[in-house]
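Query form — protein Alpha-1,2-mannosidase, putative

QUESTION: What is the three-dimensional structure of this chain?
INPUT:
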Amino acid sequence: MLRTGLLLCSLLYCQFLFADTSNVTDTTDRVRYVNTLQGTNSSFTLTRGNTYPTTALPFGMHTWTPQTGVNGDGWKYQYEKDSIRGFQQAHQCSSWSNDYCVFSLMPVTGKLAVNQFQRAARFSHKNEIAKPNYYKVTLDNHITTEIAPTERGAHLRFTFPRSGDAWLVLDGYTRISDVKIIPAERKIIGYINNGQQLSRELRSYFVLQFDQPFTAYGVWDSKTGTLTADTLNGKNAYIKFKKGAAVQVKTASSYISQDQAELNLQRELGSFASFDQTKNAAWKVWNDYLGKVKVEGGTPAQKATFYSCFFRASLFSRQFFEYDKNGLPYYYSPYDDKVHAGYLYTDTGFWDTFRAQFPLNALLHPTMHGRYVAALLDAYDQCGWLPAWSFPGEGGSMIGNHAISLLADAWAKGLHTFDPQKALKAYLHEATNKGPWGPANGRDGWKEYYTLGYCPYPGVREATAKTLEYAYDDFCGYTLAQQTGNTFCEDVFGRQMYNYRNVYDSLTGYMRGRQADGSFKPDFDPIEWGGPFTEGNAVHWQWSVFHDIRGLINMMGGDSAFVHKLDTVFSSPNNFKVGTYGGPIHEMTEMVMANMGQYAHGNQPIQHMVYLYNYAGQPWKAQYWARAVMEKLYNATENGYPGDEDQGQTSSWYVLSALGFYSVCPGTDQYVMGSPVFNKTTITLENGKQFVIEANNNSSKNVYIQSATLNGQVLTKDWLSHTDITNGGILHLEMSDKPAMSRGISKSDRPFSLTK
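ANSWER: The structure tokens for Alpha-1,2-mannosidase, putative are given below.
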């Protein structure tokens, strides 16, 4: 029944998608494929993406969205809700974390209502358009709201019915806000500070410039509900326009100053005389951007899924820098509350995004990514730690020290924009200390990890998962040190990067929780979640040895045993035991709904697993399962993801996989082969060269690579190097519905592992 319902949703969405051709000028239009409602049908107990209908430009400093959730709730938009209480400037990188520095505008008709519950208006999705460059909804009260984005602002248009008074409510939310109404200039200015664990020094300064005069105005207090008419200053504001007005407002924000907010407004929106000009300009930005990857062949639904995921993969990490009056970049640092020259990016959790989102950026946006990794060391200077989860400053959520993954990966791919010795010094500090913010700020259990060779359980929370990820991070430190001549760090991290071996139990064949006395935690069940594992079980965490899959294969008994264990992940019942969670969490429910055995693609630890068949001489199984996961677990509807989208990671998994390869081990220059979705894909690289992937005879059944050539030369290896792609050229694949069991099986064809 579920599968039938999803198919019906997909068919209905495709009818809507291709019926709306108002802004389609020719066949090169790719924006029309994107549905920003993808993944919005989410809740606390079941997530299909945890996304909101983001209206933004690529990697923009601010985004905009309709708000169905209450103020301060991370669940800002849920598809099942039927009323909107505001249109919000947003930044959120996870529904599990409340947003920061947000405010909203809400049009009201008839009697003025400012309270978020009283002003809420019902709506229907049939009256909603959700595109990257344009959001539109007509509420049941006949008010139409439209939004078009810039990088640090937006252009909005509110069209009111003639039958009632026309009000606009500005809500400064839950913490610090200050608003000033300037009727003579048709303007509102102010600042806000709201969110969790924010410095009180952080301000988001904003300016709202209207094209219509105010017929009335005042301020209101969100705690008491008191309205004060004809008052210019307060925490929140309301203004009134003539009945039936079509009001346009340009807005921009700055973290630096009110003057900078005005400059951002003038620079980004000053040349647009009308809302439609802003909308069309944003369309061109997105259409050109999406054109970096041109796909041909495939079904309309596959193109919609690809470009919707590509859109979502292109939002994080977002810019936190601005341009001064001379056009030079500078930023307010949430790490030390000072203004610095240069670039800063934020709003991402590396535990999720080191795997695919940043490797995709390194491939498509090397200049931006080079600035990003250099800024990691600026953050280290400003707060004494490498970021692990920036929102917008350091939060330290989840596990691992994955800033080193980004740094090592960039260096391996030729992005030498930072001082590697400083990076290694920062990582050594990270790996030998515990910071004040969250488990991933510094290294939880670092002393035991160094002395015992593993994190003991239960002394260290989620100890086995941390041991596995620390070992990978130490590999990244090792390889960066090796490439840059730091023999001290090479020796230190070279000893630690094999620590994954110390939590493997040869009797059960699984990674397990190990106690301080060396014994394994008793009463082991591989399908029990939690305990020594993070958001998963032993079946999921078995494979988190990204840097030494050959070592893992040997430890598990060789190629045949390894492949058999991979196979059983898909063939096992999708049962689970809640373990230390005490009850089902949404990741468990999503694994069951995926109905692919114990394969839990909705969470990060297992997302690379399908590609591991390449390391054991059966690459055709990687090809089969990569296509199966894409086909079964992704689509372009509100149910479009198999779990949390997580700041671009789950989307980036799809984008890379649809191209036909994946970044199993960031920190190396390799992408491991899978099976491309489309007959032809053309990647236009930043250096002007093109890498073309031709998949002759490709179809939903013909998922197996029979033969391959790279620039006319026979290709048998199961991976591509970064320079194979960035040098440009043609990867030609012959596809079939039958696996080619003699291709890509020799030892020399297999991807990188520390153990040869």
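ADDITIONAL NOTE: Confidence is low (pLDDT under 50) at residues 1-26.
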